[in-house]
Amino acid sequence: xxxxxxxxxxxxxPPVPASLTSMLLGDFGADVIKIEHPDIESGNRxxxxxxxxxxxxxxxxxxxxxxxSITLDLKQRHGKEIFLKLCSTSDVVVEGFRPGxxxxxxxxxxxxxxxxxxxxxxxxxxxxxxxxxxxxxxxxINFVGKSGVLSLNGNIGNKPSLPGYFIADxxxxxxxxxxxxxxxxxxxxxxxxxxxxxxxxxxxxxxxxKSKR
Length: 213
What we know:
Elements lengths: L7 E5 L4 H11 L3 E6 L15 E2 L2 E2 H6 L3 E5 L5 H12 L3 E4 L5 H5 L3 H7 L4 E6 L14 H8 L19 H24 L3 E6 H4 L2 H6 L2
Helix pairs in contact: 1-7
């Protein structure tokens, strides 16, 4: 029996960090349900990379292994109702939108907490809920650049070279996975819900991490 076999995780996220987090939880036995937009192209199911694997892009397939899938339009009332019903019997929600988006859709932490008082709700975003940059869009290269890590990737005196993989995305997903597992342990002791706020920039920035201690 895998350690998370009796846990259900709802994954409502754009590609990479949140998807990787729920994938890792699924690898340890969690029942993961991925919420996809009715327009499957918006989630890069088909076009993220080549070659395709059984009709899916290879990267999409690898990041979403061990998951079930359902399409919901969360902008519509019926989609919200189904989402919240799933959350009512789940242990963890993982989302990867900009701060405030899920609240606008009325599927945020406070909305889910009303129908599931023990939910663990994990939000991953580029800069975090309380950052002055919270509303700015960004990709992995932006976070790697702002953190200073990019300056270490190259020869002295030359321009830095682009990393070969998603450093901030992968680091943030690891932090999120660890935080969720800690929250599960904490819930077993205190029987309470928790909102986890993960900043991809903070996950690779030593200076910012130290300033919060």
